[in-house]
Design a protein that fits this description.
Elements: H1 2-32, H2 37-40, H3 54-68, H4 88-119, H5 124-147, H6 155-161, H7 166-175, H8 179-191, H9 198-212
Length: 213
């Protein structure tokens, strides 16, 4: 029981911090580009409660960890009104890339925390910070790289839509309502051994190790 409590305690802060900053970054960029929808709805806040999605923040992470030993999820998407944007296709691409960019900045933050904690090695407090920061590095890398995949509704699809021909972008828009089911299906197929997505997580783990070594 104590081990479970420790794992939850060390994982909660970096995971909530990661998904919250990811969405705030989307809203912040949208606000800078002329759409204040997120700001008016109170989404430009670091309060994680405002960003929790029952499926992406709770159900999918639990399903992923219990079924496939993976760790990933997402927060409630920040609303963006494209009619307020001067150049909707370009601006949506910038808004989309802001989320993964925020996660990469957080990777740098957590790497610095690890370096500081390692200098204090020997104390229980230092171990707690190292474990927390390691999860921060790992989870933010997952969010950054997973979200740049060109699968609607992930950020990568919106970035790609800003550069591909209009008919291709329209096709991606039609796929978006089914994107969540595709993601859940990938998790299910991985659990049943039909497909293997462990190379992705192995890549993330190796990258994280190289950054903190």
């Amino acid at each position: 029981m104590e081990e479970i409590i420790y794992k939850i305690a060390t994982a909660a802060i970096p995971i909530l911090f990661a998904i919250t900053l990811h969405e705030v970054a989307h809203g912040w960029m949208a606000n800078k580009l002329g759409d204040g929808t997120a700001r008016m709805l109170g989404r430009l806040t670091l309060n994680p409660i405002k960003h929790i999605d029952p499926i992406g923040t709770i159900a999918v992470p639990l399903l992923a960890v219990l079924s496939a030993g993976m760790l990933f999820g997402w927060a409630k998407a920040v609303p963006v009104s494209t009619r307020n944007l001067k150049n909707p296709r370009r601006d949506m691409a910038l808004i989309a890339v802001a989320g993964p960019a925020a996660n990469l900045l957080m990777v740098v933050f957590w790497v610095i925390i690890i370096k500081i904690a390692m200098a204090m090695s020997g104390s229980g407090i230092a171990k707690g910070f190292i474990d927390m920061a390691w999860i921060g590095v790992y989870f933010n890398l997952i969010l950054a790289f997973f979200n740049i995949l060109p699968l609607p509704p992930l950020d990568g699809s919106k970035v790609l839509s800003g550069f591909v021909p209009r008919n291709v972008a329209n096709m991606m828009d039609r796929i978006e309502p089914y994107g969540l089911y595709i993601i859940i299906g990938i998790i299910f197929l991985s659990y049943n051994g039909i497909i293997n997505i462990s190379p992705f997580f192995n890549f993330i783990q190796n990258l994280a190790l190289s950054l903190v070594s």
